[in-house]
Amino acid sequence: MNELRVRDARESDLPEIVEIYNSTIPSRMVSADTEPVTVEQRTGWFREHEPRRRPLWVAEVDGTVVGWLSLGDFWDRRAAYHATAEVGIYVKDGHRGRGIGRRLVEEAIERAAELGIEIITAGAFAHNGPSVKLFERFGFEQWALFPEVAELDGVKRDLVILGLKVGKRDGAIGEHYGGEHKHRR
Ligand SMILES: CC(C)(COP(=O)(O)OP(=O)(O)OC[C@H]1O[C@@H](n2cnc3c(N)ncnc32)[C@H](O)[C@@H]1OP(=O)(O)O)[C@@H](O)C(=O)NCCC(=O)NCCS
Question: What is the band of 167 on the pLDDT scale with cuts at 50, 70, 90?
């Protein structure tokens, strides 16, 4: 594969970010949205990100955005959750299975301490095998299961929350991730 570059997203990337997101909706495996979202609807979400605390990164190949990862505030954003962030990750169809997701998650884990993040959570439908496997590969474990909370095309679906303790502000990498290095390439 040509060189993969990960950088902070710019607002001008938002149409591509939204397009990648929207492309996953019809599969009914990834998103709780059932209709495409607009750039306008996602602008507020984009602006909630801060490169030094809650970043939104894009993965680029040859200047084209082929994926993105966001680290957003957890749950209802209140102060007690300051060191916990929720990850979202989307890789463009046609570029999956080539290590882009792995690279983005790796970077999130490696940079968590400098971002003030000690715990990363990820929400996924239980039937989203690629997503669950991607996170488990890095040592994420299932911390919660909400049975049948979603309904997609008339089918009830479970939501799982996966979590990983990644490290402390002093830069130490947590024991869970430390134990997972053997899985990294
Ligand atoms: C989940 C997703 C981000 C993975 O990205 P990717 O670039 O294809 O993943 P990679 O090629 O880096 O693979 C990394 C790991 O993910 C898992 N994985 C990826 N695709 C998989 C698949 N089709 N089936 C099973 N596991 C898969 C594997 O554990 C893989 O590790 P391995 O290479 O050692 O086998 C991608 O499939 C995607 O964008 N899906 C739609 C969006 C989504 O579901 N996002 C998650 C909701 S937050």
Answer: confident
Which residue puts its alpha carbon closest to atom 36 of ligand 1? 91
pTM above 0.90, yes or no: yes
Cβ of 184 below 6 Å from ligand 1: no
Best substitution site from 89, 134, 138 to test ligand 1's pocket, by max atoms within 8 Å of Cβ?
A: 134
**Tens of pLDDT along 130-149?**
999 999 999 999 999 999 99
Report the relative pairing of strands 84-91 and 119-125 from DSSP bridges. Answer: parallel
CATH number of the domain that 101 lies in?
3.40.630.30
Domain region containing 99: 4-183
Please count the structural domains in the chain. 1
